[in-house]
Design goal:
Layout: E1 10-16, H1 23-29, E2 37-42, H2 49-55, E3 59-62, H3 68-79, E4 86-89, H4 101-109, E5 115-119, H5 132-149, E6 160-163, H6 164-170, H7 179-190, E7 194-198, H8 214-246
Parallel strand pairs: 1-2, 1-4, 2-3, 5-7
Antiparallel strand pairs: 4-6, 5-6
Helix pairs in contact: 5-8, 7-8
């Protein structure tokens, strides 16, 4: 996609935890002409992640409470001081291809969607990049989402874009592993226009804090399923209250 003549303000939000080796690669690969600013949320790193980010011109904020969602929420509070039109979420491990950002935001720029999920399962994957436990977990969560909410997704991929207006309406709350699925569930519940685009995926630099360990995989799987069923129970309860008030 060619750079539009009138480009909305696009900010990139990157939560990081001990990513000093991979983060410079991520920041260098972001197409600068498309992005107003990059905000890196340091989630309590014990290495030089924050310094590496500042060296490459990113804004750095700190969130000492560990958790992917906690870092994202902190980043959003920072962005709220000067809100963008579109937020792009990107991991700091260089498993995604930041150069594909224009393709991820394209449906929003064309008015075709408010939320775009970069699907790793629809895109080209390096062999072994998406671990078996991640594949199974994503598949199960996506099947349940379709059954519960009627929205069809193929992935819970972290590389995604959403309009600021839609994001504010979602009122995100999750502070750890349920962040991505919470966003997709709430988009479905609110009828927000959501689409997927294929994105490429490679082996990350370093070891995953989630799927790279048995404990991390178990905790993430539990939280994703818990979020799915908790949100569904809330919807059923709210529907019951609406039905009762109409009686």
């Amino acid at each position: 996609m060619e750079l539009p003549e009138e480009l909305p303000a696009i900010d990139v939000l990157i939560p990081v935890l001990n990513e000093e080796e991979s983060l410079p690669l991520v920041l260098d690969a972001i197409p600068k002409a498309w992005v107003r600013r990059v905000v890196v949320v340091d989630n309590g790193s014990e290495d030089r992640s924050a310094a590496r980010a500042r060296e490459r011109g990113a804004e750095v904020v700190q969130e000492l409470q560990r958790g992917y969602g906690a870092a994202c929420l902190r980043g959003l509070r920072h962005l709220a001081e000067d809100p963008p039109d579109v937020v792009v979420f990107l991991d700091g491990d260089f498993s995604d291809f930041p150069s594909e950002l224009p393709g991820v935001v394209e449906p929003i720029l064309k008015g075709e969607a408010e939320l775009v999920i970069g699907s790793r399962t629809l895109g080209a994957q390096e062999q072994g990049a998406l671990l078996v436990q991640a594949v199974v977990g994503n598949k199960l969560a996506c099947v349940l989402m379709e059954l519960m909410y009627g929205y069809r997704f193929s992935d819970l991929g972290p590389f995604r874009a959403i309009t600021w207006e839609a994001l504010q309406g979602l009122r995100m709350r999750d502070e750890d592993f349920g962040w991505t699925v919470e966003m997709q569930i709430k988009a479905a519940r609110q009828g927000i226009g959501a689409v997927e685009v294929p994105v490429s995926y490679r082996k990350r630099v370093g070891v995953s804090k989630i799927t790279g360990t048995l404990k991390g995989t178990a905790l993430a799987s539990y939280k994703i399923l818990y979020t799915l069923f908790a949100q569904y129970a809330l919807e059923v309860t709210e529907a019951g209250h609406r039905g009762g008030s109409d009686a």
